[in-house]
Amino acid sequence: EDVSMLNFDNSLWAIVAMGGSWDQSGTPSRKSDFFDDAFDNIFGTDEDELFPAEESQPIELNSKQRAREEAFTTASELTQRLLGMVPSEMAGYVSCLVTEESRTNDAFSLMDTLDSLTPNQRGAIELASLSGERLSYVQWTNRVDPSVTCRLQPTTCAVVTEWASGCSWQEAIELSGLAPGDLVRVLQRAMDALRQFGNLSFHPIRAVEAEARVSPGIHPDVRKICRDAAIQMDRYPIK
After folding, report:
1. Distance (Å, rounded) from C-alpha 147 to C-alpha 68?
2. Rounded Cα distance, 18 and 181, in Å
3. pLDDT tens string 96-142
């Protein structure tokens, strides 16, 4: 139901990236070449360059139940990251879901971009990328149109965060390096996305559904943070 209420290129991915749903099919995470390709598609670069592991772990085949548990845990941790955000951080994170692909998608520029984000934003992006890998695989196995992707584009996250924090228009222009018209579009897209998430209905969940780990959708407090973020962004020349 929530998917039909949103107007995104991939509305299911938008909900997954907000911790509102997770894979129930038992898709393993990062266990095949497909997931390497999926991560490249999400960020446009190699995963190990952005989120290097402290040490390599042996590859093991997980059961479907283990994979479902991992997907649920990832979604839960992502929700906790989002709940820890102030409205300006949420604005920046949500902008990653709606910003158009950068023309400079090399690993160095992305690492530089991620370094400028807050710990909550970086943590949420890493967790969302895990969920995005699974969803990309599910879409692929079900022959979803390849143009319907699960992308995270953090290149404008910092300027959207600063705008929602109250920076001046001139400061935003200087920080973004964008033309005024382009920056207006970036900020408007982020504000529109925040409003869409904030306006979703609450779905109370029964005890039996909670036990079965049926998602009630995006956490109500996350939606509240989205509404607050949209209010903070709504100032001239963004309307």
Report:
1. 26
2. 28
3. 999 887 654 444 466 778 888 999 999 999 999 988 888 888 888 88
Name the pTM for this structure: 0.79
Phi, psi of 79 (to 5 degrees): -60, -40
DSSP string, the chain: -HHHH--STTHHHHHHHTTS----S---SS-SHHHHHHHHHHHSS-HHHHS--SS-----PPPHHHHHHHHHHHHHHHHHHHHT--HHHHHHHHHHHHSPPPS---HHHHHHHHHTS-HHHHHHHHHHHHHHHHHHHHHHHTT--TTS-----GGGHHHHHHHHHT--HHHHHHHH---HHHHHHHHHHHHHHHHHHHTSPP----HHHHHTT---SS-HHHHHHHHHHHHHH--TT--
Give the model confidence (pLDDT) of 184-232 as tens digits.
Answer: 999 999 999 999 999 987 655 444 344 445 566 899 999 999 999 999 9
d(CA 110, CA 96): 12
Residues 6+ apart with CB under 8 A from 191: 91, 230, 233, 234, 238
Q: What type of residue sits at position 139?
A: Q
Q: How many CB atoms lie within 10 A of CB 10?
A: 22
What is the length of the chain? 239
Distance in angstroms (rounded) separating the CA atoms of residues 86 and 228: 9
